[in-house]
Amino acid sequence: MQHLYTGCPDLVSLRSQLMLHLEHNTDIHVHIFSNFLCKQWREFIDCQAPYFVMASDEGLNSEQTCFLNLLILHTLGNQINVVLTAGQDSDNLRVFGYRVCARFHHRKYLQEVCDDLSLVRRHLISGSDIRTLVCAISCSMTLRIFNEKQMTPQGDGPFMALDEVADLCRMICLKEALMIVLPLSQRAKLRLINANWNTEALLIINVLKRCEVFALNHLRTQSKMGKSLNWTYISNLSDDLLLKNIVYYCEKEASSDLKTGEEIDQMFRQIWDTTLMLSRLSGNQLQSYKPRTTTTHFLSEDAFINVNGGSTQSLGLIPVRSDIIDDYAGSIVNNLAVLSSDDPALTSLSQAKSFDELTHWHSRRPLSDDYDRTKCEPIKDAYALRSYQKFQTFQRFYGKSLGMSIAKHIVLKSSSTERTQKIPKAQEQKKETPMKKKDKIIEENLRKTRALEEKKEIEKWKSRASSIANKINCDIFFGMRQAEQFFSSLQSKSIKFQAQFLALEACFAQWVNHCKKNKDTETRDMRIVVEIIKLIQTIVNDHQALSQSEDQKKMAPFLNHLGFGNLAQQLQCIQVTRAENKESKYAVGVGSSRFQMQYMGPYLKKDDRADADPRIQHFIPDTWQRELLDVVDNNESAVIVAPTSSGKTYASYYCMEKVLTESNDGVVVYVAPTRALVNQVVATVINQFNKDLPKGLALCGVFTRDYRCDTLNCQVLVTVPQCLEILLLSPHRQAWVNRIKYMIFDEVHCLGGEIGAEVWEHILVMVRCPFLALSATISNPEILTEWLQSVKKYWKLHDEAEERTLVQKVSKKKGLKAERKSDRVRLVLHNRRYNDLEKYVSSVEDGEITFHHYHPCAALTIPQIKKSGIPKDLAFSPMESIKLYDAMVTAWPEWPMKAALDPENNIHLKDKLAITKRDAANYEDDIKKEFTDWVRKGLIDKVIKNSKKEIPHKSTILGHVPSSLQKNCQPHFPKLVERLRQLDKLPALFFMFDIKLVETLAKDLGENLTKSSEKTQTHKIVKEMQKLQIKGKQIEKTIRSARKDEPFIKEAIATNLKQKAEKISKKSPECTYANYGAVDSETLREMIEKVKTVRNSEELISLAERGIGYHHGAMDYRARRFVEMLFRMGHIRVVTATSSLALGINMPCKSVVFLKDSPYLDALNYRQMAGRAGRRGLDLEGNVYFFNIPMTKVQNLIKSNVPELKGQFPLSISLILRLMLLATKADDKEDARAKVLSVLKHSLMSFKHPIETQMLKMYFVFSLQFLVHEGYLDTQCQPLELTGLVTHLHYHEPSNFVFVSFLKKGLFHRLCKPSTKYPGTFPDSVMYTLMLVLAHLFGREYILSQKMKYMGTFFQSKVFLEKLPDDFAAVVEEHNQKVALIFGQCILTASNLADLEEKYQLPLSNIDFSGKECDNSGLVDHLTSSSEGRSGISPFACLSGNTDHDLMTMKNANNMMLATIQISQKYFPFFYLEKTDAYGRALHLNSYALDFFKHGSIKAIVSDNGFNEGDAYYKLKDFYLSISAISVSLKEMCEDEYDPVSLAFEQLQKKFQQKLILVK
C-alpha cells in the first residue's frame, strides 16, 4: 500500500526500511499484501488469526482516513480486534493499502536502472553495506529524472539545472559516508540547525525518496543480490539533521575548507562513483568531488544554529540527613553536589510544624492514622449489634454453599496437653491387662450384632438382586450407577462380592448381545467393556483376601472372551488353554493396556496414599501435601505452585488451626487480591472453626477499603494487599503486627500484574513471620523463591542482631527466650491436576453444534520444541498419549523404539490388571521424551522426507478440525448449551471479555427457554393456573377480616394453593437448566429476598429460576454472591462470565467454554479459567471447549507458558513519604527502620541487577529532595504539617500533592465563602466549583479523541469536563515546573549510571551502533561542536534534535530518555492540565463525577458518559471515598471546628452520599 503515501515519499522510504530491518535483523516474519481484499490477506487472517490489528483512525489526508476506516471496519467484521495507535504510547504505524498512480512518470527509467544494476552485481563484494547501494541507486535515478526533465520541460514547477541537482546529491552521498563511518556517539553531538528546506530542495528530496523506495523494493525481490548484501544497518538510511548540517556548512561556512578525513573521503568517492556509473551521465562538474559546485541554496534564508543556552546547569541538593539515607543511598549522595548553608534555596525553606499522628501540633487533640480513617462503625447501639449478628449469620449460610460442614471446635494446647500425653500410657496398660468379663460380653454382643446386620443384608440382597439385573439389562449405564450406590451401602464383603459378580454377569451378557447386533468391531460401544473392566478391578481390589480360588477363576473367562488373556493369567496364575486363548468373537480387538489407556483414562486408579496422617482427619493427604504440613509445623515459609483445585489451599486452614490452638494472641493474616475472594475466605473460616475466646476478641476479621470488622481484635484477618500495607506502614500498629504468626498470600502471581503489583512486593518484603505464597500460574517459581529467600536472610540477620542486643540489656533476667523463626523458604511444586482436562474445538455444521477433540501436541511447532521442548504444564490424558504413539508409528513404521513404547510391551503398562495414574504419567513422559528427541535430532525431517507425510502431531493426531470456526456466537449460544446438556457436560462456565455480551447471552438463553416453556404448556394447564391464582387472591383479601383462629386456617389454605400452583407450573426438564433438587424452596426464597434490592434484581431472579446466571465485575457484590452460591449449590448450571471468576473464586464446574476471542484471553487467563473445569470428587475429567476462537489462538493458548514474574517499579513519592513517616514516628524505631530498609533494598526489579539498584537509589534521593523542597519533610526527614493528608491519598498520586498545594496557596479558603442567607452552609456555586476541582484531581477518566465524533447528543450530562479555574491552573503549572526541575536533574544524574553497551543498541534486534570515533576529520569536529547537554537523552533521540533542555520540560520524556534508566515518566508527579494523543488531538476528561453531582442519575452516566452501569457505580463510589477521606482528615486537622474549608467538604460529602444512596 506504499502508493497511498505518494505525497509523502519520506514515509514510504521509512516504511520500506522498517520492513527490511525486521525481515533481515529480527526473528519477526513480515507479510506484505496488496490490499485488505486480496486473497493473501484472507488466508492470513484465517490461518494466523492475529490477536489484533493496530491501525490509525486518521490519515494524512481524507483518502487515507477513508481507507483506514474501511480497513478497521473490515477487520472488525472478521472478528479481529483493533487497537488504535492514537491510544498508544508507540508511534509505530503499519497500514495495508491499495494502489494509486504515481505523480512522476519515470517508469521507463526503471528497466534501464535494473539493467545497470547487473553491472553493480559483478563488482559487488559479499557483505557490502546496503546503505551505499541504496544511496547510489536513488541518487543516480534522481539525476537521470532531472536530466530528462531538462530535455523535455513540462509543468509549472521550478526549473532545476542538472549541476544544481548534482550538488544536493553529492551532499547526500557525503551524508551517507559520514553515517557509515561515524559511530552513534558522535552523530548524537550534531549541531541543531533551525531551518527548513526550500522549494527546490523539497522537489529533489521527494524525487530521491521515491527512487529510494524503488531501490529497496527491487533489492528485496532480487534474491541473488539480496543475499550478498549486508542488511544489518537498513534501519539507518536517513539522518535529516546530519544532511542539514552538511548543507548549512557548504552554504554558509565553506570558506573554512575543513578536511573530511581519509576514510570518509574514500567512502564518499566510492558512493559518488557508483552513482555516476548508474546514471550514465557525464560532465566536468558531475565528475567533481566537491560537495558544492554551484551557488544554489537549498535551506531557507533564515537558517541558523539553534543554541538552548548551553548545558543544563547542575542542581545542587538540599542537605538531608537520616540513618535511612546513609544506609541505603549514602554512596549516591556522597557523589552529588550539595548546596551551601547560605544558599537562598536552603534558607527559603518553610519552617513548618512537625507532624505527629498522635496529637495535633496546635490543639494537642488526638489524631487518627491512615488505618483509623478507613470506614469503620464501632458497635455502639442495638442496631449496629444486630447488623453484626446478621453478618455472622449470613457468613455461616454462605459457607454452606462452599461445602462447609460442622465447624471444628478449637481447644488451646495448654488445656489439653496433659490429657493428650496420658492417653498413650493408658492404651499401653490396657493392652497388657487381660480382657475382663465385661469386655468379653461387649465383644460377643458386637459379634451378634454384626451377624444380625449381615443377615439383614442377605435378605436385602435377595430382594434387590433381580431388580439390579433388570435395570442393567434395560440400561446398562443407568443400572450400573444404581448398582454402585447399592454396593456402597453394603458392609458384608461376601454379600458385596455376590452383588458385584451378579452385576458383572449382567454387564457381560449385555456385551454379548451388543456384539451379536454389531458385527463390525469399530461400531461397538466400548463403554460397556469399560463397565466390565471396572467391575473386575473393583472386585479384585476389594476382595484380595478371598481364599477361594474358585471365586477368582470365575472372572478369568470374562477376560479371555474380551481378548485379555494376559490378565486372566494373573488371577491365581491360571493357565489359559489354547482354545481359550483363541481370539474370541467378543474380543475388543486391542490389548488390555491399550484398552485401559484409550478408553478408561478417567477411571484409572489414582495413586492416593493409604496411610492416614494424624494431623488431618477428614482426608488422606498426598505426599506433596504432607510437605506443606511439615512446612507449617516447622514455622517455615513456602512458595506453593499447584494447579487449580489440586488441594493447595487446605494448607492455609491447617496453618490457621495451628495458630488458633497455640494461644489467643497469635494472628494469621490471609491476603486475597479481590473483595469477592475475601468474602469467600471469611465464610470458610467462620464455618470451619469455632473457638471460645475472651470477651472483646473475635475469631475472624475483615479489612477492605470500604468495609472493616474486627480488624485488630481477631485471630484470623482476611484482607486485600492495599489495606494490609496500611497496617504494616502505620507507625502505631507495630504491637499488632508483632502478633502476626503467619501470613498467607493467595494468588501471589498478582505480584506480576500491572495494577497494584508493587503493593504485593511491599508487604512480602516487610513480612518477618513465616508465610505461604500460593499460586497456580507462575512460570518462574525458582526466581520468586530465591528472591524471597534473600529477604528472609535479611530478616534473620536483623533478628539475630536484635536478639543479641536484647540479651545484653536483660541478661540478668531469667526465663527470657526469644521465639525462633525459620528463615528457610521452600518451593513446593505439583504439576498434576486431580483429573484430566480434555480440550474440544466447536464448530457449526448444517446448523448443528459439533465438538472435535483437540490433541494438545497439535498446538506445538517444530521450532518451539527444538528451542524449549514440550511445555511442562502441557499434560496429556492417557488417550492422548496413545494417539501420539499411533501417529509416530504411522509416520515411521520402522521406528526403533516402536516395540519398547508399545502399550502392551511398555514396562509401565505391560500386563497390569489396573493401570494407575502414575503408570500413565510415566508412559506419557517416555513418549514425550522420544518425540522431543525426534525433533531435536532432526529425525522428524527425515521421516517426513522418506514417507512424504505431514508432521504426525499436526495431521494424524488432530484429525479433522475445521480451519475457521469464527461465527457469531449469539444466535448459536442456545444450541451450544443444549448440546452440552445432551452430553451431560453441565454445569458449565462460559467465559468472554465483553460485559454486554455476558448479559445478552444469558438473557437470550432465558428467553429461549421461556418460548420453549410456552409451547409445552397446554390450554388445560393455563386455565387451571388462572383458577388457582383467583382463589389465592380471594383468600388473601379475607385473611385480614377473619376472626381469631380463622387467619391461620386461611393462611394454610393459601400456602396449599401456592404449592399446587408451583407443582402445576413446575417447568419441564427441557425448559430449564435448574436443578430443583439441589436447593430447598425455603433456602432459595431466602436467597432471593436478599437480592431484591440490588440493580436488575428481577432479571437475575428470573434467570436464576431457570438455572441461568451471569457474572462480571461491574455487578453489585450481592448479585455476584447470589450467582456464585446458587452455582456452587448446583441450582444454577449455566453461567456466562468475564474474568471476574478467574481469580481464586470457588466455582468448580464440569465444563468451561471460551466463547469469544479477545486480547485479554492470554495464557494466564486461559489457565486460570480452564482450571475451573473438573470438580474434584464429582467429575472424572474436566472439559474445555473453544467456540468462536481462531485455531491459531487455540494453539497459542494451549502451548504458551504463563508470563514470568518480573518486578515492577516499586517506589513512588507517596510511598517514600510513608516510609519516612514510619521510620520517624514509630513506637519501635528499630523495627520500623528495618522494614523501611527492607522495602528499599529488596525490590524484585533490582534483584541481581546492580544498575537497577542504583537507579532506584537515585529516584529515592531526588524524591526526598522534592518532599523537602515542598515542605513535607524537614532536612532531618521529619514529617511536617500536611503529611498525613498526602499519605492518606497516596493512591491518587500526583493529585494528592496538587490538592495540598491548593490548600497551601489558600485557594480553597478563597473559594469556600459561606452563604450570607444561611450561615454555616455554602451556596451551590461553591459546591459546583469544589466538585469541578475534585473531578480534575480524583476523577480523571479520558475520552479518546476518535470516540468524540461518534458520541452523539447528550441529554443530561455535559460529558466533557470544564477546565480548571485560572487560579487553580496557575498553581498546577507552578507545581509542574518544580517537578520538571527536580526530576529532570534526576534523569540527568541517573544517565551517568546507564549501561553504555545497551545505550547504543536497538532494543529489538540488539544491533550495535557504537564504534571508534573519528578523530582525524576537521569537518566532523566542526559539525559535532554542539554545546547543548545530551547526557540524559537517548542517542537515537538526539538524531531528531532533542537535548537535555527538552527533557527538562517533562514532555514526551519516555521517548527521549535512555531506555536503560528504567524510570518511567509516570513515576514523576507531573500533573497534566492538557493531554494529547499520538497525533496531537486533545484528550478531554470525562465529567462523570460532576455530572452525577448535578443530576444524580446513574442512567444518564451510562447513556451520556459512556460507562457500564456497574462500572459507573463503582467509580462514583471510589470518588465518594476520596471526598470522605479528605473531609475526615480536614476535620481532624483543623483547630477551628468552624473552619469554612472543613465545613464545605463535609457538606459536599453529605450531598454526594445522599445522591449515591438513591442509586444503590
Automatic annotation (TrEMBL):
The keyword S-adenosyl-L-methionine does not apply. This is ATP-dependent RNA helicase DDX60. CDD domains: DEXHc_DDX60 (cd18025). The lineage of its organism: Eukaryota, Metazoa, Chordata, Craniata, Vertebrata. SMART domains: DEXDc (SM00487), HELICc (SM00490). InterPro entries: DEAD/DEAH_box_helicase_dom, Helicase_ATP-bd, Helicase_C-like, P-loop_NTPase, PIN-like_DDX60, SKI2_subfamily_helicases, WHD_DDX60. Residues 418-437 are annotated as: Disordered. Coiled coil: none annotated. Keywords: ATP-binding, Helicase, Hydrolase, Nucleotide-binding. The keyword Nucleotide-binding applies. GO terms for molecular function: ATP binding; helicase activity; hydrolase activity; nucleic acid binding. Residues 629-796 form the Helicase ATP-binding domain. Pfam families: DEAD, Helicase_C, PIN-like_DDX60, TPR_DDX60, WHD_DDX60. Residues 1056-1217 form the Helicase C-terminal domain. One of its GO terms (cellular component) is cytoplasm. Residues 419-437 have a biased composition (Basic and acidic residues).
